[in-house]
């Protein structure tokens, strides 16, 4: 097991005050005043996010189930692993199972937790729990009313080529693909 990363210096910033500056149906934005390690103060603005799951659906023949989805902030279609927001009080594994079924119609008989990643540490507390799903069985998708996506399959070499060429830039999909490469090679 890897040794826990520590620091010789006290690098912590401590909250002095906090203000909720925006609250939407999905995200919240806080503005905190913090004391710095040298005693000075600074302002920190960050997005509060409930967390999400990412599913790497792997077929028995090695193909991978993916989605194409338009993402409004960047005004383009992205290639992604299925993923979704964890509801308040929801178990992350149950969320992953629900999201796979809702977005793709597939269910899986074999689930493995891979890791947790923090995808935007400078401005958000969001975390993503990544799961590997095997033993896939097709079914009927049940997309949310405002959700539109296309489901397709690819091979690991195709995905690695798409990452290298910049066709896959979504961080959860890039990281998940690299994990999958190591897992399938028996290195992790």
TrEMBL record:
Keyword GTP-binding part of the UniProt annotation: no
Which UniProt keywords are given for this protein, alphabetically ordered?
A: Hydrolase
A GO CC term? cytosol
Q: Which GO terms describe its molecular function?
A: hydrolase activity
Report the InterPro entries cross-referenced here.
NUDIX_hydrolase-like_dom_sf, NUDIX_hydrolase_CS, NUDIX_hydrolase_dom
Which cofactors go with this protein?
Mg(2+)
Q: Which family does it belong to?
A: Belongs to the Nudix hydrolase family. NudK subfamily.
The protein here is known as GDP-mannose pyrophosphatase
């Amino acid at each position: 097991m890897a040794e826990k990363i520590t620091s010789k210096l006290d690098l912590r910033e401590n909250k002095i005050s906090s203000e909720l500056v925006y609250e939407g149906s999905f995200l919240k934005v806080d503005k905190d005043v913090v004391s710095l390690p040298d005693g000075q103060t600074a302002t920190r603005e960050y997005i509060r996010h409930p967390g999400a799951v990412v599913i790497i659906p792997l077929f028995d023949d090695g193909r991978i189930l993916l989605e194409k989805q338009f993402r409004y902030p960047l005004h383009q279609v992205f290639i992604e692993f299925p993923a979704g927001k964890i509801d308040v009080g929801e178990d992350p594994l149950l969320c992953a199972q629900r999201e796979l079924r809702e977005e793709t119609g597939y269910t899986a008989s074999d689930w493995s937790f891979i890791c947790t990643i923090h995808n935007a540490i400078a401005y958000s507390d969001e975390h993503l729990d990544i799961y590997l799903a095997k033993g896939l069985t097709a079914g009927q998708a049940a997309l949310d009313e405002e959700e539109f996506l296309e489901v397709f399959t690819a091979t690991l070499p195709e995905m690695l080529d798409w990452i290298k060429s910049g066709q896959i830039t979504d961080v959860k999909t890039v990281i998940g693909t690299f994990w999958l490469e190591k897992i399938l090679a028996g290195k992790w």
